[in-house]
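notes to self, project folder thing:

trying the whole complex as one job this time. last attempt i did each chain seperately and stitching them together was a nightmare. two parts in total, labels are on each line so i dont mix them up again. if this works i'll redo the older ones the same way
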Amino acid sequence: MKSLAELAEIRERMKNKVVLREGGNDMRVVVGMATCGIAAGARPVLNAFVEGVNREALGDKVTVTQTGCIGICQYEPVVEVFQAGKDKVTYVEMTAEKAEKVLQEHIKGGKVVEEYTITNAKKA
Amino acid sequence: MKELSLNILDIAENSVKAGATLIGIELDETENILTLRITDNGCGMTPEVLQSVTDPFYTTRTTRKVGLGLPLLKLAAEQTGGKMTITSRHETLFPKDHGTEVTATFQTQHIDCTPMGDIVSSIVTLIQGNPDREFVFRHKSRRGTVELDTRQLRDVLGADVPLNNFEVLQWITEFLREQYAGEEKL
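result (full assembly):
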């Protein structure tokens, strides 16, 4: 059974890491979590990014956050990727599987996954 | 919404946006009635807003012209023969005791009752996105009670580790899933 003692152990382990992380994040992944996003499937998309960032040990440079309605409900679930010095990238109609591809190719690899972007969706 | 747990996530996010620091999510199951209660100490609603809040074409947002969260929950409850009620105390009228309470009842044996779905995932998602707020979750049924109070976790973690630290989120997920699994064995 999970115990509060385990939580105290996590605290001890994290103390040093917290110091290293301060000011280090340079990429932000924002998932739309308003009614439109939640109904369209944003929860598993968010979870995929949170788990993927941890699995790939990207926590020092990537933050995964939530936001409200972005105003393009027809394209939900919507994910925006912000990076210092670069244009914002908006990914639309996301799924957990697409999130994994974005994580590998864009977040890790630095190459935008054009086929999932809003620009591409509007062309179609 | 395909799951009630998604309605719960959506309504609780409203509480966050209302500036609530403490959000309560209670589920109470009897033989064939499920009662959902979401309470918060946010800014509350004025009587005028409260009157319009279940109108899908009313919203306080500026990004779109519809507000579907509460109407969808109301529909989900009413399609089972249940109902939804809201009480709210706006901060201008109740500066020391403001907030909102949304209560919905569902007849769980009704063919149109939406399944609960992954409630653990909804609770963890709320904490991940809002580590500065307190959530008190309680799910009572004849099988037992599943509980989580983030204030207790924060007491252990202190100021050093946020509640949305990945290892903490994993701990919360397993803590809740173990409680539900324990219920199933009873």
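what i see at first glance: The beta strands of chain B are 22-29, 33-40, 83-89, 99-107, 134-141, 144-149.
need to look closer tmrw
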